[in-house]
Amino acid sequence: MLPEQPLGIFGVSDAIPKGCASWHFKPMRNLLMPLKLNFHLLCLKMRRIYSGLSHTEEKMKYLGILTIFVFVMAGFVSGRDLRAQTDVLADETPELVPVTDANTALNTDMARAADIYAKLMWAAYCRTGGRNISKAAYDALIEEVEMDGESENGVLSAQGVSFIYTERAALRLERLQDINGAEEDVRRAIQIDPENVDAKWVLAQILEKRLEQNGRGNRSMRELLEEMLSVGKEIVELDPDHSDGHRHLGNIARYLGKVENDPSKIELAITSFKALTRIMPFRAQFHWELAELYESQNRLGEALQSYERVVTISPEQKSVWNRLGQLYLQTGDYSAALRSFLTVLESIESGAIPRPSPNSSWTEIDAHSGISLAYQAQDNFEKAEHHITSAIALLEERALSMRSGNRTSRAKSTERIDLAVRIKDARYTLAQIYLRFNDAQKAVGAFEKILAVDDKYVPALTGIGIAYQMLDDVTQAENYLRKAIGLTSQEELPDAYNALGYLYAEQGTKLDEAAALVRRALKSAPTSGAYLDSLGLIYFKQGKLDAAIENLEQANHYLPDTPEILLHLADAYLEKGLKEKALQTLEHAVRIEPDNVELRQKLDTIKSSK
Questions:
Q1: How many CB atoms lie within 10 A of CB 589?
Q2: Which of 206, 278, 533, 551 is the most exposed place for a label (fewest CB within 10 A)?
Q3: Using an 8 Å Cβ cutoff, are 311 and 335 in contact?
């Protein structure tokens, strides 16, 4: 009984993996099968040896040796055939077998097999040489194969013929740049053997080139993309471990999924990239692309796991650390976000990333911005201010270096515009930090820097109006907020409407206009707790207590545990005569902010009036 994987004639296992083209000669199949003779591997081995020979004379000698080997093999097979035809008893030894006058010459089929075999080897050798010689060798071989196919007793199997067409297709595509001839050959190979994985992969490469060169002939772009997708599916179905096939399928499925907004194709892309991470688990790039696909589908938990694998394999990928930090911010894990961003800064400070590099500059800026957001969420005003200020300084330094340069290309101009937008966004973030932590004067200064560059930037106009309101400068607040509203005709920004309505509500003036302004804001964000609080306060000032309580209770539902909303709701309960509810609401507010003087005074007043 033969072993599972016998050694091949070149000293290595010739076991045939699924999807590899194998070679079969019908008349001697039973004798050659024990040797597991895989011609695909054989040709590769011969090509390596042949390409290593430097002189033409050496190559010709090697070719002669191999030709002799072919005839020796054919003679060996013939001898085996003749021996099988003799009447040798089981207990007879070779010495006792009488010499016969049997003809030991090759029969017709064997001679044809040997001839085709030699031509195949010659074609394989020629692929390492001149393009015309190689093409001519394959042409001669194809002609021989076609003649063999016309005979009733052809010596080649379908897999063998398909393999030869595939080899010539690969030659035409890679070396000769004959994409039409390559496609003709490879489609013929697939027609002969529909399970030829190598042929299907060559076809996939041809389709990719046609897409890149826009040389799709009579086919529409849609048809070409669909065929690329179909071929990719067939490759990985025939060979689930075909890494190139999975990458091809993943890329085309991802593209079609995004263009067509088709979740099923995105899921197909995810499946392919997951397969790539299984086949090559230490290739960080595949985990990275898988993470981006998960993120595009809002599967943040799986995206985080994939990004974590990227930095485990390649810790130097600082942009991935920043992306991890951003995702942790989105999921509310602020401690993990800080760890990710700080890892970037620590590597920069240690010299792992040289500061002069443009990419490292952006990486450092993104890390500082992310850290600032994380510290804001943790109510750490000083550190939030420090890191966003550091980001602004780096951005301004970059802008200065660009202004001193003399390049005026379109790409450079686009980069300047993008940089100006980032500076504006960073300054706006700083101004919002000042508003949140009740430093209105610094907020005014930050907003003024933005408006000095873009005096029609509505978010900054709204912000500075709110800052002046906090400073009790009603005139300035109203001016800026009205200007903001006047500029929102093309872009609906409800904050400006709500801010002006709230300003009037606090002042107790223009209450009807104030209610209209806030209701307009609520059209854009009907579940905004801040907007509902503003409308409830306006109704309270108008004496519409039921409407006030209804809106304030909704505000507390959408934005719970907010002392300002609880104070307004307590006032409405108290005015309505619901002292017990007012007392409970204020006690809850004091538990949230025990140092809030206004809340304690209001609570003491209600208790003393009991």
A1: 25
A2: 278
A3: no
Lowest mean pLDDT among 69-78, 477-486, 503-512: 69-78
What is the DSSP-derived secondary structure letter of residue 280? S
- Could you give the C-alpha distances from 11 to 37, 333, 436, 525, 599, in angstroms and in order? 12, 58, 76, 75, 89
**Of 526, 469, 529, which is closest to residue 502 (Cα–Cα)?**
469
Q: How many domains does the chain have?
A: 3
Q: How far apart are CA 268 and CA 310, in angstroms?
A: 21
* CA–CA distance, 572 with 543 (Å, rounded to integer): 9
Distance, in Å, from the CA atom of 494 to the CA atom of 414, rounded to the nearest integer, reads 30
Determine the Cα–Cα distance for residues 360 and 371; give it in Å rounded to an integer.
16
Q: Does residue 567 lie in a domain region?
A: yes
Task: Give the three-state DSSP class for 7.
Answer: strand
Tell me the pLDDT tens digit for each residue of 364-393: 999 999 999 999 999 999 999 999 999 999
Question: In whole angstroms, what is the distance from residue 272 CA to residue 250 CA?
Answer: 5
The answer as to whether 307 is a domain residue is yes
Cβ neighbours of residue 179 closer than 8 Å, sequence gap 6 or more: 172, 173, 206, 209, 210, 215
d(CA 41, CA 314): 35
Report DSSP state, residue 95.
G
Which residues share a beta bridge with 25? 156
**Residue 78 placed within a domain:** yes
pLDDT for 105-124, tens place per residue? 556 666 666 666 666 666 66
Same domain, 148 and 65: yes
Report the C-alpha dihedral over residues 220, 226, 231, 234, rounded to 10 degrees.
-150
Mean model confidence pLDDT for the chain: 81
User: In this structure, what DSSP letter does residue 522 have?
Assistant: H
| pLDDT tens-digit series, residues 18-32 | 333 334 433 343 334
Q: Are 340 and 308 in contact (CB under 8 A)?
A: no
Q: What is the DSSP letter of 174?
A: H
Closest to 344 (Cα-Cα) out of 306, 304, 371, 308: 371
Q: Within 10 A of 588 (CB to CB), how many other CB atoms are there? A: 17
Q: Is residue 291 over pLDDT 70?
A: yes
Instruction: Classify 282 as helix, strand or coil.
Output: coil
- Would you list the DSSP string of 354-403? -TTSHHHHHHHHHHHHHHHHHHHHTT-HHHHHHHHHHHHHHHHHHHHHHH
Domain span including residue 309: 216-314
230, 127: one domain: no
Containing 532, the helix (H) or strand (E) segment is helix 529-542
For 379, other C-beta atoms within 10 Å of its C-beta total 9
250 shares a domain with 122: no
